[in-house]
Amino acid sequence: MSRPLSGIRVLDLTRVLSGPYCTMLMADMGAEIIKIEQPGNGDDSRSFPPFERGISAYYANLNRNKKSVALDLKDEQAKKVLRDLIKVSDVIVENFKPGTMDKLGFSYDEVKAINPQIVYASISGFGQTGPYKKLPGYDVIAQAMSGMMSVTGWPDSAPTRTGTAIGDILAGLNCCIGILAALQGRVSHRHGDRIDVALVDCSVSAMETINEIYMVENRMPQRIGNRYEFIYPYDSFQASDGWVVIAVGNDALWKRFCEVTGHDDWFAIEKYKLNKDRVQAHEELQKLVTAWTREHKVKEIISLLQSNSVPCAPINTVADVVEDEHIAKAREMICEIDHPVDGKMKITGCPIKFTESAQFNYSKAPTLGKDTKDVLANLLKMSSDQIDHFE
Q: Which Gene3D superfamilies did the record assign (predicted)?
């Protein structure tokens, strides 16, 4: 069986995280990814920790299943090679500062003139249009400007960045979705498209109902810790030996939760029966539930609630996740692949699973320029003398 994107060729001019995450997903799904890197240093993330046997695991995880072609795009012969690659590719993805591709001679109009079928995707901090378009954009800037940091943390804490680079990841996801939509659209309208994805836009979109609180109620959303604004109990609670989350998502679950914890008296209290009222009474309910959880160990709470279909979970460490029999093993979210130079290494697997397509078979990330000669010789049919220029 082939994989869903088999036969799709992508020119990947991205680096660090947002773009490489997008093309990593496409590579996992079977697309041929030709990563264009600057000779000498390559993708900036090749120098990012952690390192395993001299290779950046940051780079190796995000760039598995890809080919590396080293081209200096300020060199005219390298530009000609890229133009020839554009002719035989389906997608080009870049995450330079807006205007950079234009200066290099690869604006959307110039690329479309070479290949009208091309899907041209750009990821940037603030997008290709608007008064902020020339400002540099990083994940933390997206989290700050989208309002995300203003609602992350505790009431008495400073605005807080999420533990992962969620702005970059959201941009990578949305770019991938846009590319897939454009490829499908190409089937009917017979031409490519331009995709413009901004880190800030993606983070604003992810704020969803939090934005509505302000726009509908004219109330400024605040930092509320692990509590959810719209449901309660839906929070983290301290056990005798750690922490758990409990997610009582509706009134029927509240009744069941009260029964299995031996607190029918809570259910009998009128102001706790409906979710909208529990949300209003969240402070006193937090104290009541915590008084119960503190009497039990994490495993005891999880066992009791899960066996009675009350949503809950331990707050795992990364070590817990890497060893988890469901997440790491059954769902194959922690996988072992060949190390780029020697031996094996572990990576985070692809979260998208297919039933009727080939299973994932991850190949190692390329060393810098590893595939330059092969791509130039076999895809572009260049002579040895021509290839020598790039070595």
A: Crotonobetainyl-coa:carnitine coa-transferase, domain 1 (3.40.50.10540), formyl-coa transferase, domain 3 (3.30.1540.10)
In DSSP terms, 11 is beta-bridged to 34, 92
Domain annotation covers residue 376: yes
Q: Which of 124, 118, 240 is nearest to 183 (CA)?
A: 118
Q: Which pLDDT score, from 0 to 100, does residue 361 have?
A: 81
pLDDT for position 312: 97
Give the pLDDT means over successive 10-residue stretches in the chain (391 positions).
92 97 97 97 96 94 97 96 98 97 97 97 97 94 97 96 97 98 93 97 96 95 94 97 97 97 95 95 96 97 97 96 96 94 94 88 94 96 93 79
Say if 2 falls within a structural domain. Answer: no
Active-site residue list: 168
Tell me which residue range forms the domain holding 281. Answer: 234-319
Q: Could you give the angle at the alpha carbon of 350 between the alpha carbons of 346 and 354, nearest 5°?
A: 135
* Burial of 71: CB neighbours in 10 Å, binned 0-12, 13-18, 19+: buried
Query: What is the pTM assigned to this prediction?
Result: 0.94
Amino acid letter, residue 155? P
Give the total number of structural domains in the chain.
Answer: 2
d(CA 88, CA 3): 20
Q: Are residues 344 and 300 in the same domain?
A: no
Residues 289/276, Cβ–Cβ less than 8 Å = no
* Strand segments (E) across the chain: 9-13, 32-37, 51-52, 55-56, 66-70, 91-94, 119-124, 193-198, 234-238, 243-247, 312-314, 334-338, 344-348
- Token output for 323: 């060893």
Torsion sign across C-alpha atoms 71, 76, 80, 86: positive
